[in-house]
Design brief:
Number of domains: 4
CATH topology of the largest domain: Heat Shock Protein 90
Largest sheet: 6 strands, antiparallel
CATH architecture of the largest domain: 2-Layer Sandwich
Strand content: 15-25%
Number of strands: 22
Structural class: alpha+beta
Radius of gyration: 58 Å
Shape: rod-shaped
Number of helices: 14
Amino acid sequence: MRLPCRQDRAASLRSARPRGNATHPRSDGPTGSTCVHNVHGLLRGRALVREDGRPATERGGSTVVPRRWSIAARLFALQLLFVVVGVAVGGAWSWASARADLEADAAEKSTAVAVSIARNPFVLDQVDTADPSQQLEPYALDLMRRTHTDFITIMAPDRTRWTHPDRSEIGRPFRGTVQPALEGRTFTETFSGTLGPSVRAVTPITDADGRVVGLVAAGVTVANISTALVPRLTSVVLLALAVVAVAALFSWLLSRYLGRVTAGRGPEELARVFASYEGVLHSVHEGLVVVDRSGAVVLHNDRAAELLHLPVPGERQEPIPLAALDVPDALRTLLASGDRAVDETYATSDRVLVVNQEMAFPRGSTKPLGTVATIRDQTDLLHLSGELAATRTLTDALRSQTHEFANRLHAVVALMELGRVDEAIRFASDEIERHSEVERRRAVGRPETNGPGAADHPDDCTDDHPDDCTDDRPDDRPDDPARTAPEVLDALLAAKRAQAAERGVDLVADTSGLLGPVPAAPGDVITVLGNLVDNAVDAVAGARPGRERGRVEVVVSGVDGPGLDGRGLDGHVRLVVRDDGPGIADVNAVYQRGWSTKQAGPEGRGIGLDLVRSTLTRTGGTVDVTTGPDGSTFTVHLTPRSVPT
């Protein structure tokens, strides 16, 4: 398809809808620059493909599309042709009938005139005279004027004329048939004589003995008959034109109506649209319902019949009142109102339906025909959503366990590298016992003492559970499982320092200010400190690739004096993790699960800080964050009252 350069791509898109890629090379010719649009994979378009599927032709560089007539135009032309042909045939028949009537009248009148002359005694007397023409000629001329006949010829049996309108023909033989008259019979005929074609009657003149003593011929020329036919023909033509005009008007009105209801489409296009409509209607997986302005379902497909318990659609669908539908009142009200709806949910007795509804307007009109509603079944999707939610919950739990396990494994490895094998074994054993206790409590329906529910149940020693009333509350022993020895922190930080160095980050740790064991379980301290360090290293390492080595500082110290609640509490510990990264854009969102500045991977992101928050919430600790363009600082406070009891 070639388009002049002054036509933009929108012109080509209006003529056809491309599917796939389109290339637009330019070619220069002697007449100037021309844009050549090679569009591949075109759908059927009006300007490129004819309605019968064959490609359109090109003339003079422009596309010529043969347009088929619409049903309305075809019907109008057919009706008009039928009326014109009918009027023409009727007019011809009327003209022939009128001419036949006039010829019959002329023959009848000619017969009457001829017979009356033949029986006139005056004529019989003049026939026997020596010169019949002398008296009969004036008599015949006078009678012609009075009877409005074109000629009256009185002749001898041998055809010799005694009278004639043209006196030069008197005495000459008569042209025409006379044999029946010589035999005594009166007859009529159409014959071309001296005056041209005429309708004539010939009758014998007989004497008293019955002998034929003469003949009389009277007639009217065909030209005069045609002249008499003109008034009748004029009236027939005027009537025919009136009939054609009235018929054309009614045909035009009917064609306008058909053009409106068929949208100006031809029968081939209507057949194609109907076939497509049938295919789409019965193949879509959504329910389709059409409601007219009277509030009745006039069209629905198989899926709608299944979802709304409607009759199976057949070739002829009878309107179904909305009141007869077995649907919730809210859905019935929506269908009756015709209001626009987008993904509205309605629950029936056995399904959950999502409904979309729009007004339907005919082309070129603002008066709605009704509404079209599409209905989807969300029941199966809701079941799948529930299963997905359960799966996500399990996945989040596994991700949390992955973070905790990695940090604790680093601590165990670091303790073993430092030669503190007994502490590493005791730390690992404590974790195994803790998880076993959690599983046991879950099995009997009781909250765990070191998990998400432990904050609500700080003490399970009750009359119903006397076995839990053991004197295992924390004390100041270094190996108390409710406290974390400084060596564990040193081991964890040593492992984190090695990891940070591999990523080009210097991890500087200072635990000299720690006055004693940290007042929290080792697993909780490792979860909090390990995730904060990992987060800081990630922030520094991923800030500006290729920059100089980043720096993360960790300070663990004891705090003397009043605690967080204003009371004097010994053993108050502060953990500070500082980095020189780019800072945090949204401080309020850092603890939300899934929030992260790193690209998501298969192991999941946005878990570590959420674990920090949940652990401190459970143990009673606090965390504060300050951030800026020079980095971020997380400060954690742990007090003896945050230790689970």
